[in-house]
Amino acid sequence: MISRIDLRGDALPTGGALRDLLPRAEFDVEAALEKVRPICEAVHHRGDAALIDYAQRFDGVALDRVRVPAAALTRALEELDPAVRAGLEESIRRARIVHREQRRTTHTTQVVPGGTVTEKWVPVGRVGLYAPGGRSVYPSSVIMNAVPAQEAGVESIALASPPQKDHDGLPHPTILAACALLGVDEVYAAGGAQAVAMFAYGTESCAPADMVTGPGNIWVAAAKRYFTGRIGIDTEAGPTEIAVLADDTADPAHVAADLISQAEHDPLAAAVLVTDSVELADAVEKELAPQVAATRHVEDRILPALRGRQSAIVLVDGVEEGLRVVDAYGAEHLEVQTADAAAVAARVRNAGAIFVGPWAPVSLGDYCAGSNHVLPTGGCACHSSGLSVQSFLRGIHIVDYTRDALADVAHHVVTLAEAEDLPAHGAAIKARFGWKVPQQ
User: Fold this and answer.
1) How far, in Å, CA of 112 to CA of 230, rounded?
2) Cα separation of 145 and 235, whole Å?
3) What angle (nearest 5°) sits at the alpha carbon of residue 213, between those of residues 59 and 20?
4) 58, exposed or middle or buried, with CB in 10 Å at 0-12, 13-18, 19+?
């Protein structure tokens, strides 16, 4: 059901050589880029009409308009299952606790007497959020995108989610209910690359945004790449990943369940176990079959994911080697199920989020840990972070110098400008002192 990669015995390679040995899904955003280009440009030139046409073509729904009426949001919340509402409210409450602590404050540094640099943090003006609606519906992603944007102080927040044939062309009612709970009242029935284009260019009904965030399929990722530079993005999210670093203290039933939990997202989802225990590897494999048989989405998602090239059990000589492997892999989600798991987890450098011990499964982080589940994939955790309040803030430096403070350093500025053959830079300093720079 899942392949094995044996890295025991020989010394582990370093850098890219080790990464090349590890399983990874094929996710060719560059190839998809050419296919989304005409879609994006159609939205640019035809606006809402293009969005309506694509809703018919891709989603099988006939829309009169793209913006979701306010009454639909109210109705979705009123009709929401009380238990689901309670779960969403608790998820929102915990996410706010964590993200509120991420707020940054203005800080002024006195560099010299009379010379200060202040760094102030300013939220982006308008953000477009994307909530997927294909194989599954993710109201949790609405929360994970909206809460940090709100806590950052973004004043204008809009959300797009694909129109649903079974719901009169509206996004899924649970998505709408989550928006209502969060106070996000600007919602659009638009999916895929065309939704990103709507936010990037603007249309008759939707003002352009400064930034687009949220997970999606390869077409969403390709559209984000297409518009990079015109708008800010969070990341080009690829298929979801879980890596579990475990030793012989781990419960194989837990490990198997957690691998399956990510495999049920998508046929390209990655489920990777890194362990120094052959006994654990054997026990996990034995657990997979009955647990898979007892759940849903088996043939279309779970089995293709577990059998795919992106999933494997990786055998290593010890936890030390396991740490090197998971750092090279840079998983979106990393579980550490070892003896002294907290100490081992503290040594991990590359992961989108780390889940410590047997009682912190990835599923907790998906919904109610308080952490954010919009995380870097495809090894990007080696250089990028998950979504946070910081994602929606810009640091601006404010330089304030007196005449004396400038005079004190003027000769250095002129010297450096001349060393770079930029005499006009130096002249801008000299002009302030009658073209004679004070010497120190």
Assistant:
1) 38
2) 12
3) 95
4) middle
Measured CA to CA, the distance from residue 138 to residue 130 in angstroms comes to 10
Calpha distance 308→305 (Å, rounded): 5
Tell me the C-alpha to C-alpha distance, in Å, between residue 71 and each of 64, 74, 162: 16, 5, 18
Residue 440: pLDDT over 70: no
What's the pTM? 0.94
Q: Which residue has the tokens 């079974």?
A: 166
Given a contact cutoff of 8 angstroms between Cβ atoms, the answer to whether 315 and 275 are in contact is yes
Choose the catalytic residue: 99, 333, 335, 373: 333
Q: Which of 236, 332, 335, 373 is catalytic?
A: 332
282-340 pLDDT per residue, tens? 999 999 999 999 999 999 999 999 999 999 999 999 999 999 999 999 999 999 999 99
The total number of residues shown for the chain amounts to 440
Burial status of residue 386 (CB atoms within 10 A of its CB: 0-12, 13-18, 19 or more): buried
332 counts as catalytic = yes
* DSSP codes joined into one string, 91-132: HHHHHHHHHHTT----EEEEEETTEEEEEEEEE-SEEEEE--
* 172 is known as an active-site residue: no
Q: Could you write out the DSSP letters of every residue in 194-248?
A: HHHHHHHH--SSS---SEEE----HHHHHHHHHHBTTBEES----S-EEEEEE-T
Question: How far apart, in whole angstroms, are the C-alpha atoms of residue 75 and residue 159?
Answer: 18
Given a cut of 90, whether residue 210 has pLDDT beyond it is yes
